[in-house]
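Why do we care about 3D structure at all? Because function follows from shape, and shape follows, mostly, from sequence. That is the central idea of this module. The next example makes it concrete: a single protein chain, its amino acid sequence, and then its structure expressed as tokens.
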Amino acid sequence: MYTNNCFAKNSFMRKSTKILLILYILVLIPSLVLGKYLFQSIIPTENGFEFKFKIEGIIALILLIISIVFGSILFIRFIKSQPLDKALFFSSAPLVLFYGLSLFLLAELTSFENTTAKSMRYLLNISQDSLYNTILWAVLLTLIFIGILFFNYFVICKPIGKVERIVSRLGDGRVRDEKLRIGGGKQFVSIEHGLNKINNNYKFKEKSIKNINDSVSPKLSKQFIRLLGKNDIDELELGGQVRKIATIISVKLSSNHFSEKEVTLEENYNFLNSYLNVISPLIRKFNGYVDKHFNGGIVAIFLKGEDAIDCAHSISRTINIKNRRNKQNPLVIPRIVLDTEEVEISLSNKEGDYSTDVKYDSHKLERFDEICRNMSSRIIFAKSTLDNLSLNYKFLYRYIGKMTMNEKEMFLFEDLDNLPRDLSNQLIKSKPNFEKGVIMYDGGKYEQAKEYFSQALKICPKDKCCYIYFNRSREKIK
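And the structure:
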């Protein structure tokens, strides 16, 4: 239906253009014939121009105005029928020619000796003795030319901005119920038609996904559906898999509960769970999916690395606040590790009971957690997570070494944004020496590594990770 309406509209435009062209010719011919009377009505004098219109001159002027109006409409329709590159050329060419001709006449006006030239020189206050007014008129003419040219390009290229906004919205999966409109020339009509087809396809797909969600959502968590994404849930067949690049967070909580007093395993479990109950809503807040709980820990999955980092910061701050509010309870220390890899998501249905499964390298997370514990760090993450962040996402971190697993080297970093400001500032100052020390340590140059770590500790004596590296370097030397 849309295609038929589009062709019908173009057919109507072609018919109206033919009628307008005939009217233009019928008006243009008599205006040219009577043009001499128009020129006879404008008489040059020593003080400018004098107007003495007779009936023929008035008729010629009216016909000329009408022909200019009709010609302008035809020219605009011609421009709109052209592709963008040709539209810019044909719309600019008359302006450039008129500008060039005007500059030439302005420059040569003082050399003409006829009456019309003298009248123009008097009207513009131009003389052969001074070029000042000539330059001023040339500058004014240039500014007018640039302004008209800018307005011309702005009007012709305006639909491109609408196309950009529509494409950006459709790229994010946001559709509109009403018809998308761009405006502009014939080329943009085709683009508008194509974008409306894409929009309609999105609406149809969104409706299909909604039907699937309505049947599946009551039996699956909203976080899992968000993890799949609305464009993937319809692709996830029962027993099938969907692969996605995701960032996995493992949070483990430790406390000195047992060392403070004798408690049962159940009491310690309930105590740590009171903290985990605070962490789960934070994961959902930052668009994460809680994959599993275990004693004193939780694993979550995020599609965006930025969300995962923000969530890790929020978890660390929240636990610190909870520790300060509950000073009578033992101190709880979080260990948060992040890794970005391809995960495999599957869905199964047993007797109407939907179950989900997300596969990832849990063994690697355990190794990361072991390093996090040994280095007395709060948050560490792999280089894969760093590579998956957007370029404009900024936060403080430092390189803390590498590990080898399955014959593959992985580089690890420590997050410094979650630490107290005074400590964080000292770590940033000591960062160059610390990272050089780590690189030397990785390369087996323990004497040099020890020296760099010693310099870093002078700047930040509270750096536990640096102190551990310093002792290891000294042991290696011995």
